[in-house]
Design a protein that fits this description.
alpha+beta; about 30% strand
């Protein structure tokens, strides 16, 4: 459920969007293709994604460096998917790039991780 990222710092690309009702099959096929393709890119660390019943989604991809995140944006097949997304699958979106400086969490039943250092 959660991306298994290394200790910070690393880069988070936060993609917040609202889906249209068009072409669900094409959207899910492209999403699976982009998931597979991104996972093979240098500097890729993981991804987390969720969507509500109103079509609002948030996908966060994690990258080892700003250069790795930028390189993913420029992959030709990803650029094509972005174009199709604007034309067909999204009524709107925002992309935010952030550097993760601290990270901690809790998973019931999993071994404990170090507590937030402050």
């Amino acid at each position: 459920m959660f991306a298994n990222t290394p200790d910070p710092p690393y880069v988070a690309v936060i993609f917040t969007n609202r889906r249209t009702s068009a072409d669900d099959a094409g959207y899910f096929a492209m999403a699976a293709r982009m998931d597979k393709l991104s996972s093979r890119q240098p500097g890729y660390l993981g991804i987390e994604s969720i969507r509500d019943d109103d079509g609002v989604g948030i996908t966060v991809s994690y990258w080892a460096s700003p250069a790795a995140a930028l390189a993913w944006k420029q992959v030709a097949e990803h650029a094509e998917a972005q174009c199709i997304g604007r034309e067909r699958w999204y009524s709107g979106y925002r992309v935010r790039i952030a550097t993760v400086e601290r990270a901690y969490g809790f998973d019931r039943g999993a071994p404990a991780t170090p507590a937030d250092p402050g």
